[in-house]
């Protein structure tokens, strides 16, 4: 998580959401709850199915967007 915190500060200036994309498996098949470093920086951990079409990742991120803006 510290690495994601560092990326968030370097590339997002400490404000926004950093996504950690991790291979999907039987024990990790749903996004984890958002982890907030502080009021301005969040990390989301989302599963990615390495077997299926990569467009599924885009669908997952787009599904999360309303949650991030609210």
Walk me through what this model shows.
The chain is an alpha+beta fold and 70 residues long. The protein has one domain. It has a 3-stranded mixed sheet, with helices on both faces. A hairpin with a 4-residue loop joins strand 2 and strand 3. The longest helix has 15 residues. The protein is elongated. The two termini are 23 Å apart. The relative contact order is 0.20. The mean pLDDT is 83.
Largest sheet: 3 strands, mixed
Q: What is the overall silhouette? A: elongated
In what order do the strands lie side by side in the largest sheet?
1-3-2
- Beta strands, count: 3
Query: What is the number of helical segments per DSSP (H or I, 4+ residues)?
Result: 2
Q: Report strand %.
A: 25-35%
Structural class: alpha+beta
């Amino acid at each position: 998580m510290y690495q994601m915190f560092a990326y968030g500060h370097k590339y997002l200036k400490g404000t926004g959401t950093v996504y950690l994309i991790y291979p999907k498996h039987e024990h990790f098949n749903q996004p984890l709850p958002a982890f907030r470093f502080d009021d301005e920086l969040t990390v989301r951990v989302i599963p990615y199915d390495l077997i299926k079409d990569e467009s599924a990742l885009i669908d997952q991120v787009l599904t999360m967007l309303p949650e991030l803006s609210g």
